Amino acid sequence: AGFTEQQEILVKESWETMKQNVPELSLRFFTTILEIAPAAKGMFSFLKDSDEIPQNNPRLKAHAVKVFKMTCESAVQLREKGEVVVAENTLKNLGSVHLKKGVIDPHFEVVKEALLRTIQEAVGEKWSEEMKNAWGEAYDQLAAAIKAEMKKEA
Ligand code: HEM
Ligand code: ISQ
């Protein structure tokens, strides 16, 4: 059973709510990634030289939002086409950036877990198993595309 309209709606609606609070959302996302994998800190250029996660850092916010937006777009494509298609240039860039930074497969599980926990906190009572599966599936398919590109370039 492919990605359903209901799943797409769950992803889109929760993102509409979450994006009204980008500063807090991006900070939570990042904090959670580092809680799960403290060693990931050194990978991010905007964190390297600070003791704590910088509040209100525009680059951090922009990056975090991109990850959410791309996962959201991935959900739309899954429903429309049954697969995730990332624009060729974007995918190439993502592949090479992540490869260069030393990202490996298990890191994708860390980011997934952090993404889901951040959403859970943000939406509160609206959180459900269905919402978790919808975001999780959209993320997994997007991650698979990036991983495949990384392998092509390695
Ligand atoms: C950079 C998205 C997974 C670590 C980026 C950028 C995007 C992005 C859009 C900016 C690329 C650019 O600068 O042109 C995603 C998405 C992911 C994902 C959509 C999963 C579906 C991961 C994972 C890690 C990671 C698993 C490992 C912890 C990084 C790092 C950078 C980066 C270190 C460079 C940040 C810097 O400029 O210092 N990612 N990413 N990403 N990502 Fe990811
Ligand atoms: C880049 N790639 C994956 C996850 C991220 C989280 C916050 C900021 C940038 C990111």
Automatic annotation (TrEMBL):
GO CC annotations, alphabetized: cytoplasm; nucleus
Domain of life: Eukaryota
Pfam families: Globin (PF00042)
Keyword Coiled coil among record annotations: no
Subcellular location, record wording: Cytoplasm; Nucleus
InterPro entries according to UniProt: Globin, Globin-like_sf, Globin/Proto, Leghaemoglobin-like, Leghaemoglobin_Fe_BS
Chain ranges of the Globin domain: 2-151
Family in the record: Belongs to the plant globin family.
UniProt-recorded name of the protein: Non-symbiotic hemoglobin 2-like
Gene source species: Nelumbo nucifera
Upper classification of the organism: Eukaryota, Viridiplantae, Streptophyta, Embryophyta, Tracheophyta
Gene, per the UniProt record: LOC104586188
